[in-house]
Design a protein that fits this description.
2 strands, 3 helices, mainly alpha, rod-shaped, Helix Hairpins, single chain, two-stranded antiparallel ribbon
Length: about 200
């Protein structure tokens, strides 16, 4: 704890600091709660995405027999991503990436040259690509939220466990010192009055 001046001016400074800390703390606590809730929701979203990916992968494995077909070699040529859009969403003051959409090149398929399962296979692969992109963005969002939660938690702890108790202790010390000074001043004043009274009595005698 830094050394403080035991003066009235310092007492005012410490009281102002205490008021400021007590005013900011509820805002930080609210932000911490919002971030905790957002982190929990994002972890649930990631778990859901992981489940959906596993289901899509299971479907993929069931269809592996189809992909052994020589015609399956055409699939990569028909699966080109033309673009995707990622927006931003503000969570508790933090801008995080949000998946908007993904588009694939519209490559014409000759219905007579490709097997009947081709459309389903294309849709399956496209779905996996979209889910993996959503998962990547959700992981980035979770990382950003967890980083901010750590910072806000550190600030809450700083205010609760250091700054506010420190300001209260400083105020207590200054009040004790100023109280002692007032008591000493009153005592000196009484002694001076008594001496004056004795002197006056001696002069009158």
């Amino acid at each position: 704890m830094a050394k403080i001046k035991l003066t009235k001016n310092e007492l005012k400074l410490q009281r102002d600091s205490l008021k400021r800390f007590q005013r900011y703390l509820p805002t930080l606590q609210l932000k911490k709660q919002q971030l905790q809730m957002s982190v929990r929701q994002m972890r649930e979203s990631l778990a859901d995405l992981q489940r959906r990916l596993e289901e899509a992968t299971a479907d993929w494995r069931e269809s592996l027999g189809l992909f052994s077909d020589p015609e399956a070699a055409q699939l990569p040529q028909l699966l080109r991503v033309s673009g995707w859009r990622v927006g931003q969403h503000n969570i508790a003051g933090i801008d995080v990436p949000v998946f908007e959409d993904i588009s694939f090149e519209d490559i014409p398929v000759d219905l007579y040259e490709t097997p009947a399962w081709f459309d389903d296979a294309l849709a399956m692969v496209r779905r996996q690509i979209e889910l993996r992109l959503r998962q990547q963005l959700a992981e980035e969002t979770l990382t950003l939220l967890e980083q901010e939660l750590r910072v806000v938690t550190q600030r809450v702890n700083l205010f609760e466990k250091v700054k506010i108790p420190e300001a209260k202790e400083n105020i207590r010390k200054i009040n004790i010192t100023l109280g002692d000074q007032r008591t000493n001043s009153v005592g000196r004043s009484k002694i001076a009055k008594a001496k004056c009274a004795l002197r006056d009595a001696a002069l009158e005698a």
